[in-house]
Amino acid sequence: MSTIAETDISDLDVSDLSLWKEGPPHEVFRDLRDRDLHFSALSDFPNETGFWSVVRYDDIATVGRDWETFSSNRSILLVNSVAAEPGAPDPMDLGANMMITQDPPRHDRLKALVQREFTPRKALDHADRMREIINAVWDRAIESHPDGRIDLVQDVGIHVPAMVIGDMLGVPREDAEQLVDWTNRTSAFEDPRLVPDLSDLLVALEEFVPYVDAMVTERAKCPMHDLTTAFIEAEVDGEKLSHEEVLMFFFLLMVAGNDSTRATFTSGMKSLMEDPEQMELVRSGAVPLEQVVEEFVRFHPAFAYMRRTATRDVELRGAEIKAGDKLALWYVSGNRDERVFDDPNRFDVRREPNPHQGFGGGGRHFCLGAGLARVEMKIWIEETLKRFESLELDGPTERLSSTFLNQWWKIPVKVS
Ligand code: HEM
Asked: Could you give the number of structural domains in the chain?
């Protein structure tokens, strides 16, 4: 059988969803890492231009750090627009105000405003609340399924991060689920189960924006001890965030903090359940949980890629990139680059050091919530293993259909 490296791949579209049915196409990426940069069409979006695939660890770091040549401006997705039809309102216009889709100096100004709320120390301040939320979610899952047969994603995974970040933002507990639904529908736009029609994205936003709007107005009048109030009051050089910027922060944190943490926790637990030896290493305490979390993030980066756009003509690994060209930084590939990681397709919680790119390639956009996510996942693993003597996979799993969100939609599990 010939490998892709020996074949003509000019027609290969890395973003073709049929390659992603069982997860990221790691074999395709392995072969791409041995080639010059590959250019793909975006076949599912015929009105969109194609993109270059940046697949080697070093190249991802180079591109990620050079924001002047490789901009995050406007979009971190491969598509420029998700409007239902040309000229129709486009939800991406709203997203274009978030700091993740900005370059310095504006990006840096926005990040500086919130960074002090996301130090590793601050993350530890939330530990008790996280433990409480995790146990409340498990209690409810077991109450609804006394036979111990649960869906790790739908019954547990989707609730915990939403409640944690919702709590920090000051969202009442009873509204957290509604926010999850809105954010799910805006970020999983490739999956027809969540977004049957692209116009549904707008419907979700039409409900979501007024909700947050009202909350921001309320906090401006009546400050509380939450992140929404902190955003309203934050100042750098005497300058405050505008009402729209506060709204965008709220939206960004809901989206970035939700999908990611649940994807990493549920996928990582699945890997542990598939490998009793690894599970025992974790249960016995032979490997510190902090280290286990790093392997979860390396093996299952929650965002398969982030996009950059070239601001000038530039050469990169044999490719003549033109100003305006799109590049996908495939974190799913960088994290399995054999030039950096021994036996990269092996899930091994003993891996140390583990300089993965799951929180980004190290540039200006390195994950704001990395400290928070690390604490949250550590406590989540700890509480889960403490609670159940046994966790086993219990039937066929299903993927979320996406090239951006690297996650499972269904993981049936039997706990006892
Ligand atoms: C396991 C969990 C998480 C993973 C794997 C993850 C991954 C990432 C990645 C790869 C980026 C880089 C974006 C780029 O290259 O353009 C990023 C950025 C970001 N993440 Fe996370 N994230 C996680 C959890 C969180 C949480 C819990 C929060 C918030 C509470 C958060 C907030 C953000 C924000 C605001 C950015 C944008 C930073 C910037 O533009 O400077 N993330 N994340």
From this structure: 1
- Return d(Cα 412, Cα 408) in angstroms, integer: 11
Q: Which ligand 1 atom is nearest residue 252's CA?
A: 35
Of the pLDDT bands very low, low, confident and very high (cuts 50, 70, 90), residue 2 is very low
Q: Which long-range contacts (CB under 8 A, 24 or more apart) does 275-279 make?
A: 275/347, 278/347, 278/348, 278/349, 279/391
CATH number of 164's domain:
1.10.630.10
Per-residue pLDDT, 202: 73
- Report the C-alpha gap between 209 and 231 in whole angstroms: 17
Assess whether the C-beta atom of 32 lies below 6 angstroms from ligand 1.
Answer: no
Could you tell me the residue range of the domain that residue 343 belongs to?
A: 4-415
Please report where in the chains the tokens 């547990």 appear, as a residue: 156
| Across 139-148, 199-208, 325-334, 389-398, least confident range | 199-208
What's the number of CA atoms in the CB half-sphere (13 Å) around residue 242? 5
| Ligand 1: nearest atom to the Cα of 161 | 27
- Cα gap 199→361, rounded to integer Å: 33
- Pocket residue to mutate for ligand 1, from 259, 359, 372, 375, most atoms within 8 A of Cβ: 359
Atom number of ligand 1 nearest to Cα 303: 10
Instruction: For ligand 1, say whether the CB of 360 is within 6 Å of any of its atoms.
Output: yes
The CB of 327 under 6 Å from ligand 1? The reply is no
- Per-position DSSP letters for 137-173, written without gaps between them: HHHHHHHH-TTSEEEIIIIIITTHHHHHHHHHHT--H
Residue scoring higher pLDDT (256 or 104): 104
Q: How far apart are CA 393 and CA 415, in angstroms?
A: 9
